[in-house]
Amino acid sequence: MSSSSPHRLGIVQRITGVLFGPPRDPLSPETRGHITLIAFFAWVGLGADGLSSSAYGPEEAFKALGTHVHLSLYLAIATAFTVFLISLAYNQVIELFPTGGGGYKVATALLGPYSGLVSGAALIVDYVLTIAISVASGVDAVFSSLPPGWQGSKLTTEIGLTILLVLLNLRGIKESIKILTPIFLGFVITHVFLIIYGVGSKVDHVGVLWNDTIQETSSLAGEMGWVFVASLFLRAYSLGGGTYTGIEAVSNNINALAEPRVKTGKWTMFYMALSLAFTAAGIILLYLLWSAVPSKTGETLNAVVFRSVIDSLNLPAGMGSIFLTVTLVLEGALLYVAANTGLLGGPAVLANMAEDRWVPTQFGQLSSRLVTKHGIVLMGITAIGILMWSHGNVDLLAVLYSINVFLTFTMSLLGLCIYWWRHRTENSHWWSRLALSLVGFIVTGSILIVTLVEKFYEGGWVTTVITSSVVILCLLIREHYKSTALQMKKVDEMLAGQALKPVENPPIIDPDAPTAVFMISRSRGAGMHTILWVQRLFPDHFRNFVFLSVGAVDTHSYGGEGALEQLQKEVHESCEYYVNFCHRHDIAAKSMEAYGIDRVAELTELANKAREEFPNCIFFASKLIFVHDNWMTRILHNQTALAMQRILHLQGMFMVILPMKVD
User: Fold this and answer.
1) Rounded to an integer, what distance in angstroms lies between the CA atom of residue 190 and that of residue 80?
2) Gap between the Cα atoms of 493 and 645, Å rounded
3) pLDDT tens-digit readout, 543-559
4) Would you list the DSSP string of 247-312?
5) Is the full-model pTM beyond 0.85?
6) CATH architecture of the region 497-662
7) CATH architecture of 41-394
8) Do domains 41-394 and 497-662 have the same CATH topology?
């Protein structure tokens, strides 16, 4: 290794430390407590997406009523009811799937793997669009108050803000949330105050409003028929479905919550439901009480009604404008905080799908900061691509966004209906839970159908094409992993099918004798293949066999209770198998184990230890060689062997890679 290489490596490590912070030890008991979220921070990080939808969801529904705005009173009640309905249903998901996964896990376990794939693909697309539409909406809100000449910088600003979010999340989930918390609290405080004051100052109108609403509804029904009234209301109700987005985020990220997870998750869901129901329903009520009319200048309906409420406060000159500006800036900024939900939820879904081999296994890997770095980067890059393609057009993105949300809702609630029916003899309260799930399924399914029909030719077809493309790609990836696993299983059964017990008097190791050091993986068949090749190529040459094994700590092994212990058990048993095999064939052997996030880094450290103890050693590893090699096979399988060969050669150690052909 050249003298400048360590210097360059040290500079890179220092820069990485400044950007992302020092690495965390996944095996340390304090680490998990440090990175998990209590209910408050989970509400901020995961609830911002739902709460921010009050900036556009209520307005969409209100406008859909046209001149029949009196129906908005029913709309406010229905909105609050629906928020709590979906939230209560998703509390069941938290109970049944306390390790996370949300809609993907529900559909997979209760409807089947292919239904899970559709739900997972919809969630991935949804979270990418969450980032894109939230950033674009936030930038639109801020730039609407800037000079016209600045408008050309909107797309550049959106891309820059997305990159900033990616960097924040690479530092850690809790770190990104802490930085964004003041914006979230500012939004809550200003909007809660305006809603309470706005409704309270008109409280004497509520009774009159209710009577007028009933009379106008009866009059409209007599003139146009009840079918017309119901259709008009359901259309507005469905087109305001964006209000309910983000509710599923808690169940997708339950593994990131502090213990006890289920209790923390339920409290988070309660905070989210209460804040969203109060804000969304309250804003609709403000529209009605303050006779809000869409502005011809392009102002949002929220801006119109908030201006009316603030003007009634009779604040000193200039203070009212400042208050309104702060409120609208916080509304736009909260949309930016909501974009962060996509970078929390999307990688979590990808990690769960990676465990089932629908996407490359790399998406289950953790960074030194214990975040799913590959998922975060992919979500960020894809969101930037969507922003560039759509030029940040919020109207188009909103159409793409809403369909997949309700596809996942509907599939999850259908799965819950099936679950409670199947387990009706095991739970005395099954009927109430089934009823809750069934009502939720009908509501979300209806919104999905109406939204798809209404918006299909306005861009909804694009969502269908994108989601279908993701599903097809996942099917190809799963088929490749499945065929490869089948072949590896045959090798395991043929070369390592029997358990081996320890030998009572094993051969004694001679550190100065020629030593073969093997880098082994989970596949015992692949390890045995390498051992047999070495014995065939170097008969009776090596006196010691040393086995290096690294337990890679990923989202699966770090997420569930007892998962790390299970990983350590599997690695230890695998090492014992190889050692026992060598002892049975009168070969001195030992093993070295390590656990960490980066398999290459841990293997490098083990290799240096092996070199110190056995100076006359040569390293061996196997690598899958595909008959039909292409870019897909290179992406789907890690290149650990090649990376280790380069590192060891640079350090003056010799390593041989033995091929293992896969057809």
Assistant:
1) 20
2) 29
3) 999 999 998 888 777 76
4) TTHHHHTGGGBPSSHHHHHHHHHHHHHHHHHHHHHHHHHHHHHTT----TT---HHHHHHHHHHHT
5) no
6) 3-Layer(aba) Sandwich (3.40)
7) Up-down Bundle (1.20)
8) no
